[in-house]
């Protein structure tokens, strides 16, 4: 039974992916479907990370890479969560850490397209109030538009 649990956790962790948005040429060759929406004219200083799969404690360290990669040239990070099927407390903690790091450096976090379970987990934890509800967008296009607003305010 314990071996089955570890195998399940490893399989979930292996299938969860976090990718930086590809350029327009690479986007045209990417598959269609949730999480693969095309985005034109992403402003300078905006980085989009597409998250696929379940963000559970076995895969939450993949968000640590986003935290580490976020550098000085980035003003806004968009986490596109349209293909995130589940979110647990460990992943929520990593998103909170990312938000805290960005705020310390006067950068912004926008969440794009969270599905039902991740949405309610973030809502119950009070994260939307800390993030600002205007920084939770239903679509990737709306998130990019919000990023433009934040850049214009700077």
Produce a short descriptive summary:
The protein has 154 residues and is of the alpha/beta class. Helix content is 47%, strand content 21%.
SSE layout and pairings?
Layout: H1 2-15, E1 17-20, H2 24-29, E2 46-55, H3 61-69, E3 76-87, H4 89-104, E4 108-112, H5 116-124, H6 127-131, E5 136-137, H7 140-153
Parallel strand pairs: 2-3, 3-4, 4-5
Antiparallel strand pairs: 1-2
Helix pairs in contact: 3-4
Can you list the strand order of the major beta sheet? 1-2-3-4-5
CATH architecture classification: 2-Layer Sandwich
Helix coverage percent of residues?
40-55%
Order of helices and strands: HEHEHEHEHHEH
Number of domains: 1
CATH topology: Transcription Regulator spoIIAA
Work out the helix count. Answer: 7
Q: Which CATH class applies here? A: Alpha Beta
Overall outline: globular
Distance N to C terminus: 54 Å
Task: Give the strand tally.
Answer: 5
Summarize this structure as a short list of keywords or feature phrases.
21% strand; globular; single chain; alpha/beta; five-stranded mixed sheet; Transcription Regulator spoIIAA; 47% helix; 154 residues
Overview of this structure, please?
The chain is built from seven helices and five strands, in the order αβαβαβαβααβα. The chain has helices at 2-15, 24-29, 61-69, 89-104, 116-124, 127-131, 140-153; strands at 17-20, 46-55, 76-87, 108-112, 136-137. Helix 4 (89-104) links the parallel strand 3 and strand 4 (108-112). The protein is an alpha/beta fold and 154 residues long. 47% of the residues lie in helices and 21% in strands. The chain has a five-stranded mixed sheet with strand order 1-2-3-4-5, with helices on both faces.
């Amino acid at each position: 039974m314990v071996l089955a649990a570890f195998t399940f956790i490893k399989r979930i962790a292996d299938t969860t992916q976090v990718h930086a948005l590809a350029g327009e040429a690479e986007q045209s060759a990417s598959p269609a479907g949730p999480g693969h929406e095309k985005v034109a004219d992403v402003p300078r200083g905006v980085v989009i990370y597409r998250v696929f799969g379940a963000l559970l404690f076995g895969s939450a360290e993949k968000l640590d890479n986003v935290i580490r990669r976020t550098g000085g040239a980035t003003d806004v990070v968009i986490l596109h969560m349209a293909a995130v099927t589940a979110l647990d407390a460990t992943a929520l903690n990593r998103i909170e850490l990312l938000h805290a790091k960005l705020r310390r450096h006067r950068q912004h976090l926008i969440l794009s397209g969270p599905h039902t379970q991740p949405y309610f987990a973030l809502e119950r934890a009070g994260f939307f109030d800390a993030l600002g509800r205007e920084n939770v967008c239903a679509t990737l296009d709306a998130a990019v538009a919000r990023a433009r607003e934040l850049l214009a305010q700077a």
